[in-house]
Amino acid sequence: MEHGPLKGVVVLDLSRAIAGPFCTMVLGDLGADVIKIELPETGDETRRWGPPFVEECGAAYVGFNRNKRSVAIDLHADEGRQQILGLAAHADVVVENFRPGTMKRFGIDESVLKATNPELIYCAISGYGQHGPLAKHGAMDLIIQAMSGLMSLNGDPDGRPVKAAVPVADLLGGFTAAFSVLGALLGRARGMKSDRMLDISMLDVLITMLAQPIVAYQMSGVEPKRHGNAHELMSPYTSFRTQTRDIVVSLANQKRWHQLCSIDEFSALGTNTRYQTQESRNEHRALLGDDLQRILVLQPAEYWIERFLALGLPAAPVNSVPEILADPHLTQRQTLIDLEYPPGSGNRVAVPGMPWRDVSSRMPVRNPPTLGQHTEEVFAQFGLTQPQQSGLLID
């Protein structure tokens, strides 16, 4: 689709860092006109997260800010407040991820913006949500991973808790916010009132993701523990060493177990009474893991992967980032899209596109903008006074 299903929807993006910008990038990929508000001279803090840098701009900014127009406005100044009100009058959606209460201090919170535009959909993303005992506390991805219990379940069984390698609270929070905005837009189109704030709590989001261990704990009374790469409900479902590199194997049912045992090297395991059912294999998971490991380490990873995949067994090598980027599967599916930053510079970088490519643009309509790149363009479009420059920081 050339423009995407959200063509004509104007999103006023007052967010920064990861969760908010990821949400608005999703909306921009779906065709929305995203106007990214940045503080003059400093801009989105991810511009300075690095190295590496491209033209003094970090990878997180380049990765999460395509399909947007950047406008520089000082939110601390009365002039900036008036300019935000002027833009909000023309917007369909506002997205912000400040700590609760910050927008009110700026004088541009939900009630003020909706007084200007009653049909406005207002989406606020925060660590703990807009109300509750923790609402006013600051939170970033690491804090929410720890607070939610997710971090307690990640890592080696006998090791320390470990955060996920990517900011899952931020990214899932951003996805949830985008999904909520889409639902609100659909509801508005069907005549439903958009009179409630979309209150997205990253803690709520991770608690939702933890449904299985939360329910299992209540069913058993046993506190969930770390299992490393293994799965507490099935075995074998983990990583193994081979002669050359680590691989992962997932055998989730009896059919897969019989397929594994049809391979000569594993045939003896098929007659072991301790491994006859999924329940018994899980009960004897440590012994089974040792038996499998003794076999797998005798051959290179490529040997085992070829044998497993030929039978339809779920298995894969543990790839590095360079290895998966070089995989032809990504090329054929056009998983990565090509960006240029700064626009017009000739500096090219491939970034992950959206997984629903059939409803969003395959290539970005706009490359990630430089700070304030579209200020004059946007102000002229909406007939607003040009902002005065300031370098004040947002707390």
Automatic annotation (TrEMBL):
Gene3D superfamilies named in the record: Crotonobetainyl-coa:carnitine coa-transferase, domain 1, formyl-coa transferase, domain 3
Keywords: Transferase
Documented EC number(s): 2.8.3.19
Domain of life (superkingdom): Bacteria
Keyword Isomerase: no
Gene Ontology molecular functions: transferase activity
Name of the protein in its database record: Acetyl-CoA:oxalate CoA-transferase
Organism: Paraburkholderia nemoris
